[in-house]
Write a structure and sequence with these properties.
Elements (H helix, E strand, L loop, with lengths): L6 E2 L10 E2 L9 E3 L4 E5 L1 E2 L4 E7 L2 E7 L6 E4 L9 E8 L5 E8 L3 E3 L2 E4 L2 E5 L10 E3 L2 H4 L3 E5 L4 E5 L12 E4 L1 E3 L2 E9 L2 E8 L6 E4 H8 L9 E9 L3 E2 L2 E2 L3 E13 L2 E11 L4 E3 L6 E6 L4 E6 L4 E3 L7 E5 L5 E6 L4 H5 L6 E5 L2 E2 L3 H5 L8 E7 L5 E7 L19 E2 L2
Parallel strand pairs: 1-37, 7-14, 8-13, 20-27, 21-26, 26-30
Antiparallel strand pairs: 2-9, 3-12, 4-16, 5-6, 6-7, 8-14, 9-10, 10-13, 11-12, 15-16, 15-28, 17-29, 18-19, 19-20, 21-27, 22-25, 23-24, 25-26, 28-29, 31-32, 33-34, 33-35, 35-36
């Protein structure tokens, strides 16, 4: 069975969450009909939400990404040829800066709802954009639409009724605050420490914490009554933005005993630190519904099963980036994980798989790995030596249900 490589990406698809403007940010989206509540069937695949969008008689597959302040279309798509209205200075999470065009899309049809005057940035199509035609961002909510994500039923519900979800039963209510047009909420990652995080459905992980915030918390660890464990530290890189890879930096592998989200608590969270901002990812949608009500800037989380949930996800054990020539390189490897024990080291370049040359990161990500089969990887270390490593890239057991507590290793991981 074809399978994608384990790999970690950050912010290729969320570039508008960290953005300075040359043009005016627009959330002036009009929705017709009026006074509606529409239920749209979506795909829930590998901890990502994909929405069918019709424009100009053609159906596209869009990622729904709350970490993007505005819609995105990729260069080469027919939608990228829409009339240009301005440009924006875009900063990705890897620290790269670029000026991008903004276009006004033709009417977009989602279910029975049509959106007008939707603006989108035009971004180059990269490794992290495989399988999608564009992104729907948080400007849907900023335009005044209420929105609910229910991945147990694989539904996206949108409405222009201001109080549509105000009475969510058994829900924990949090106030969200906008920064660069995307939603931030407060959580309790450990002890009594509050952490402001981006709720980012463009990320497949559960939780990542800014490295500087974690180091500050370490200095006050004696004050915490809900401890965490440090499962390892390394120097590496794992975030890939639309303009390149983040610089090398410290990465801490963590296991949190408990993470508080309003009245809800999640037990056994494995996480890593990041040079970017702290965030909760789309994996939260495995455990409950999320609704947004822009009238009062409220986010509601309604758990599927109880207010306390055991997650017990597996720790990220390896991440790949592109080297200077575009080849896949180990950017991060956990010293307690299987890849490290098999022989992978930070900086290794993947040159061959079963004797076949690997020439690019994209080729590696799209390699047709078969589940349960062992492959021979020929790697070249930082000192130039070549060696062979036997490794099963795809485990036999996989799952993709929102309520499952034992998580598979992420295949394409976008924090």
């Amino acid at each position: 069975m074809a399978h994608r490589a384990y790999i970690l990406f950050t912010a290729l698809l969320t570039v508008l969450s960290m953005q300075a403007q040359l043009g005016r940010y627009s959330a002036d989206i009009r929705a017709l009909p009026q006074h509606f509540c529409d239920t749209i069937s979506v795909e829930w695949e590998r901890d990502q939400v994909y929405v069918p969008v019709t424009a100009g008689g053609r159906t596209y597959r869009f990622l729904f990404d709350t970490g993007a302040g505005q819609a995105v279309v990729f260069s080469g798509s027919p939608l990228a040829d829409a009339p240009r209205v301005s440009n924006l200075l875009s900063h990705d999470a890897a620290g790269n800066i670029d000026t991008v065009n903004v276009v006004e899309l033709p009417p977009l049809r989602l279910g029975h709802t049509t959106l007008y005057e939707c603006h989108a940035t035009v971004q180059p199509s990269g490794v992290g954009a495989r399988g999608i035609d564009g992104i729907l961002g948080f400007d849907l909510v900023n335009s005044g639409l209420c929105l609910k994500l229910d991945m147990q039923s694989q539904q996206l519900i949108i409405s222009d009724r201001k109080c549509c979800f105000d009475r969510e039963e058994a829900a924990t209510s949090l106030r969200y605050r906008l920064s660069y047009h995307v939603p931030y909420v407060d959580i309790i990652p450990f002890g009594r420490r509050s952490e402001r995080v981006l709720f980012d459905t463009g990320s497949r992980n559960f939780f990542s914490m800014n490295i500087d915030h974690f180091n500050a918390a370490e200095e006050q660890r004696h004050r915490f009554d809900r401890p965490y464990r440090v499962e390892g530290r390394t120097i590496g890189q794992h975030a890939i933005g639309h303009g390149g890879t983040e610089p090398m930096g410290e990465v801490v592998f963590l296991c949190l005993d408990s993470l508080g989200l309003g009245d809800c608590s999640f037990k056994g969270i494995h996480a890593i630190t990041t040079q970017g901002g702290s965030h909760l990812g789309a994996r939260l949608l495995r455990y409950g519904t999320v609704a947004f009500c822009p009238r009062h800037s409220r986010m509601f989380f309604r758990p599927y099963e109880g207010m306390t949930t055991s997650v017990n996800n597996r720790q990220l054990d390896i991440a790949f980036v592109a080297d200077a020539t575009g080849r896949p390189q180990v950017g991060l490897v956990w010293s307690q994980g299987t890849p490290y024990l098999r022989g992978f080291r930070q900086g290794d370049i993947i040159e061959q798989i079963d004797g076949r040359p690997v020439r690019s990161l994209l080729q590696f990500v799209t390699w047709p790995f078969e589940r349960g089969r062992e492959y021979v990887f020929t790697v070249r270390s930082t000192d130039g030596r070549r060696r062979e490593i036997k490794w099963i890239r795809v485990p036999m057991r996989e799952e993709n249900t929102p309520r499952e507590n034992t998580e598979k290793k992420p295949l394409l991981f976008i924090p």
